């Protein structure tokens, strides 16, 4: 064995390293592992829970139990239907537990979290413990809600939330609660529920909703494994941004360990199809659905741990789910809900919801690593305007920096940046730039960030926890993975280090290694000599976070509008650390527990942990430091700030949106990208998405994204929350702007490359198709913004999986499960089913319309200079059916006549709307206006309310799910327009919240500057049967009520005008009385009501507000229809 092999093997044996989940579980399960403890029994004693007859704070709504192995288990209810299990093998006494949460949780301490949420939700509940005597086989821990009952002698009645049955021996935990039966798909023959498509449940039963295995708890050497039972029908979804070909995942391992994993193939070499591959972001959270198909019960699991989290989702044992943490304490949170929407709301009440983001975030964005001069950036924006594309964001990469110095601008290549940013802003384009957490350490007199950081000691120092098997720095090795291969790098070997534009990085590793007096020396290599060695700010320190936020001032003074946070792990060249990030044994401050005094030393200094033990904490603090820094700027006072970040940990969505890392232009990457967004949405991530078109080129093939793939990717993302075309030039790709495909066909390069003549129409079609769907997105901007606003209220995402919106359709867990990976809804009612596969020879896709709702093919349009309302509705399609849809790209371009066929554009991707829904539409603008800009404030965006036919709902349906739409009008940029915290925390209306409650909650869950300066418009449609019509027809009435439930935005008329245009779309076969088209109560019709014969729709204009209750008005539209 060579010396190299010897030290490689020493490194591989080090327990402080990444381990594949399957290897970890295999090691844990190996026979005769003396270090693994598996408790047999558990008990309760008062002395573990009290100090001098006073209940410990950590036992508020919980209790501590003792295993026969000596370990202590803390089980605590955070909400009546949310419980947390905590364990640390070092805690041999209850005094070792503290009440401090990780930074992931929205409040610092468990007790204050519970009390704040109780106050916000006006909830009174408590904990009860039974069975602590010797005669009982179980300890019973119950959350008990005190439901107000004025006629009851006590003023309330007790209602059990969840019961935790803790079996003493053999140890097991079983959770039960009262749940309703799942609604029957067909309605009972009851006149009171006439025409109902389903029958609501009537009774509840107590049922098992979650259960551990017997003796399903193991621990040793800092690791913990919890094994949970599963039923054969259970399905699992969520899991954050993990790859894989399915939205619902099963029989797989999961590795959560932030990793700069370009192309998603470095651990397993299977690419984006691999679910187990650790990616840039860690979100160890999933929802179990369909475990009890006959019951309204779903359970979510979240593992709150910053180190490596491993999961075995039915891989080794199909009837078992195993949850493991490699280091630190185990903290598992479990959420019990009636449906997925209920789960998301519960989860985000604990983890938090994002701050309200600027409206322009929902626009179209362009970025490129290669826009390396001011003229290039301006030329790209000019081209978008020339070709009349809407566009809101320009992302300038590290190209703008002076020699890759973070926070700087190269004035040679980007002269006079204020004038550049001003020019772009006048064109409606807001700019971000790439900010990485590496500070170039090449000496420079004027680089204040470096010099000040050194002077104040603000960088991470090179302090290591030494592997006792390694004699000295010469034998240090860093572990790496590439294309499925595990190997090491030698930081002492100068010859293998990156060569930058100033030469090779020849620092002396021996002198800096484990020297607490010098900053850790790392660096980032962007390839081709681009990048720099550098130091890293100690962002796990509060003072440094504050300082980091101040560094943005110059960029924003020059005109920057938002931040692109990159290399967040932080990512490094492979000679600087393990897995292209920190050395695993580098010591970092461990402030991940929000001021926990047990994490401080004798002199008050922050305790340090090995980097691998708190692996994802640094990136979390990076996003937090940036967000708060922007908010503190005087020049940003009152403005909403936005960060698009590459990766972090659960809870970072409170500060930033997420893009899913460095993908490439392949169908495999596109194929997983919609499911990634839908999965992230389940954990409250509002704004998320992949680089549209792919960042990197394929490893072999064209120097640009295949045109068919590019079209399909753009169309799929045309209604997803984050829509950014982002790619790399630098000799890798020629172009990726949609209009560039058109220019390419007219260029000499087309001829020089001998492009196939048969592809001419495909390339020519890119520009008009993509442009049309970007325009369609902008016409639906109010819809997208309303769903983003709603996210603050209940946590539901903008783009929603069908399982979220259509929980009654059990086929989504069975025969139609495959459709859940690509089909999604914007809000609750607009369904998009993009084509996800290459179809050069086949232009049809099969899609599924979820039951029990009926659907109409989407009929609104976004053509240029088109004043039409849309096209007439086609026939209603019953839910629960498959549709074979022709979605042809080639139909848009006439190959022989070489011309566009515009009427084919709306049919390139399938879209449907739910019966009875309300869809707002606005005129297409080049950009989202900044209402704080005096000129842009003059731009009006009048709103058309499109009202689709519905059916007569039963009484219970009207109560539970009426045809309702909530619209939120504000300036789109100010923080004070965001809803106040009491409203966010659960109050039905802000006006119902008393001042004391509002003041107490301000800032707890939302924005300190929120003042509720918005107008909430609620639109409700009902359909009534009113009598017999002519012949065999029946008379119906559609009633539409428009009311302002909250009206605090003073500029509604300035922004949208004085009226709503209301369009009632009619189903084919509806008979309209032209002499009695509509009547309006509590308001006057502004213009004459008319019937648009071309669109088959009744059209009228009404004031924004009426004279009825809550400034309401009601429109009645009669019609006749054969039933």
Describe the structure.
- By secondary structure, the chain is an alpha+beta fold.
- Among the domains are: 297 residues, Immunoglobulin-like (Sandwich), CATH 2.60.40.1760; 262 residues, TIM Barrel, CATH 3.20.20; 159 residues, Immunoglobulin-like, CATH 2.60.40.
- The chain is 19% helix and 27% strand.
- It has 22 helices and 57 strands.
- Strands 1-4-5-6-20-17-16-13-14 form a nine-stranded antiparallel β-sheet. It has a nine-stranded antiparallel β-sheet with strand order 7-8-9-10-11-12-19-18-15, with helices on one face.
- About 1% of the residues have low confidence.
- Its EC number is 3.2.1.20.
- It comes from Elsinoe australis.
- One of its GO terms (molecular function) is carbohydrate binding.
- This is alpha-glucosidase.
CATH class of the domain at 36-182 and 202-351: Mainly Beta
Radius of gyration: 30 Å
Q: In percent, how helical is the residue content?
A: 10-25%
Q: Name the shape in a single word.
A: globular
CATH architectural type of the domain at 36-182 and 202-351: Sandwich
Tell me the CATH topology of the domain at 36-182 and 202-351: Immunoglobulin-like
Task: Tell me the total number of β-strands.
Answer: 57
Segments where pLDDT lies below 50 for 5+ residues? 986-993
Cα-to-Cα separation, first versus last residue: 84 Å
The whole-number mean of residue pLDDT values reads: 93
Helical region count?
22
Please state roughly what percent of the residues sit in beta strands, choosing from under 5%, 5-15%, 15-25%, 25-35%, 35-45% or over 45%. 25-35%
Q: Could you name the CATH homologous superfamily of the domain at 36-182 and 202-351?
A: glycosyl hydrolase (family 31)
Largest sheet: 9 strands, antiparallel
> What structural class should be given to the helix and strand makeup?
alpha+beta
GO molecular function, one term: carbohydrate binding
Organism: Elsinoe australis
Pfam families: Gal_mutarotas_2 (PF13802), Glyco_hydro_31_2nd (PF01055), Glyco_hydro_31_3rd (PF21365)
InterPro entries: Gal_mutarotase_sf_dom, GH, Glyco_hydro_31_C, Glyco_hydro_31_N_dom, Glyco_hydro_31_TIM, Glyco_hydro_b
